[in-house]
Amino acid sequence: MPAATPDEWLYTDWLLIVQALNAAKHEECRCYECDTLDSMIEDIAWYWDLEKRELMAAVTAE
What we know:
It contains three helices and no strands. It is mainly alpha-helical.
């Protein structure tokens, strides 16, 4: 079975991914790993045409 494209994934699945990425970050940290995770979260927000703060609000509302 071929891998699904991001368009086929549900928005709620992406929220779970963002939640996991956010949980892996250190609080108020700017190390390389945290910057990378933050960039991934921003990319997901861009994909869904949201601001990062809007995406994080949706994650906390879940």
